[in-house]
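Suppose a classmate hands you a notebook page containing two proteins, each written out with its sequence and a corresponding row of structure tokens. How would you begin to make sense of it? This section walks through that situation. The first entry is reproduced here exactly as it would appear on such a page.
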Amino acid sequence: MKDTLQPPSDWFKAAADASLDGLFIVKGVRDQAGQLIDFECIDINGHALELLGMTREKVIGQKLWGLLPIHREGFFDKYAQVLATGTPLEEEFPIVTTQAKARWLRHQVVRVGDGIVIFA
């Protein structure tokens, strides 16, 4: 029986989709002056959708702070720092919204190109 996955990209996508961690891939959104003003969600796995309590159609292409406005305070600066420096971030924090299913979240944030990947 031949495996239908074509390495490496299909394997990575399958692994991300099967992960027990939520995975958010977001790219930086910049204004005309080049200043970072937001992040846009370009991909997300099923576990992350469960954490958010949202559908894929509602999330992909949306600005991060429009989806999670309560998290802009503090998180934007942290995510911008990861993007600017490439220094990963790892922390645990309480969730203060009734929309999400989790009450505490541990996340790791790493830079990839002009975006970041958030593992939660």
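The notebook's second entry, a different protein, reads as follows.
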Amino acid sequence: MDGAKAYYADLKARVARVGRKPDEQFIFPGIVVYTDETDEEHMRCIARSRSSGRDEATCAP
């Protein structure tokens, strides 16, 4: 949860730096779940994605 709070604060600060009112900007976080046949298969896909600099979303079928 600390990471999410830090990310939220960072976004609000960036909004302010470009001249927008942070209180007028809304941030709607979400969770996306991807699955593979097995946990091991999915973990291998995530490892490949991270080592190549790709987004984990590419693991989705």
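A careful reader of the second entry would note: The chain has a mean pLDDT of 80.
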